Amino acid sequence: MKKIEAIIKPFKLEDVKEALVENGITGMTVTDVKGYGRQQGHSELYRGAEYIVDFLAKIRVELIVNDDEVEKTIATIVEAAKTGKIGDGKIFVTNVENVVRIRTGETGSEAV
């Protein structure tokens, strides 16, 4: 099993969710996060004063999938989240040793 963690633009969350559900992926965790990459933030004006916004609002989507679903899931997220502009985000994939469903005690793929 793999954990897929995608950092995306907030306005793309609904598109990503719908695309994943269409592809049979229904469980996910979504978190509001802030950060920056190559963008290095941007400047804004507030009441006539300019200030730098270092950390930009992003969304982190986390999901656990079986090994055979990884490539399809990544492709789905890329297609749904891509705008073609800087700051579209990143996807991280890590190994998951085990999963336990608390309610039933199921483990491994059955718990996903």
| Structural class label | alpha+beta
How many individual helices? 2
Number of strands: 6
**Taking Cα atoms only, what radius of gyration do you get, to the nearest Å?**
17 Å
* Percent range for β-strand residues: 35-45%
- What fraction, in percent, of the residue positions are helical? 10-25%
Which overall shape is indicated by the principal axes computed on the Cα atoms? elongated
- What is the typical, i.e. mean, pLDDT? 89
How do the strands line up in the largest sheet? Answer: 2-5-1-6
The profile of the biggest β sheet is: 4 strands, antiparallel
Distance between the termini: 9 Å
Which structural traits does this protein have?
37% strand, two-stranded antiparallel ribbon, 20% helix, alpha+beta, 4-stranded antiparallel β-sheet, 112 residues
List the SSEs and their pairings:
Layout lengths: L1 E7 L4 H10 L6 E7 L6 E5 L2 E5 L2 E10 L4 H12 L7 E7 L17
Structure description:
The structure is a single chain. The protein is of the alpha+beta class. It has helices at 13-22, 70-81, and strands spanning 2-8, 29-35, 42-46, 49-53, 56-65, 89-95. The strands form two sheets. The chain has a four-stranded antiparallel beta sheet, with helices on one face. Strands 3-4 form a two-stranded antiparallel sheet. A hairpin with a 2-residue loop joins strand 3 and strand 4 (49-53). Helix 1 (13-22) runs antiparallel to helix 2 (70-81). The chain is elongated and about 60 Å long. The termini are close together. The mean pLDDT is 89.
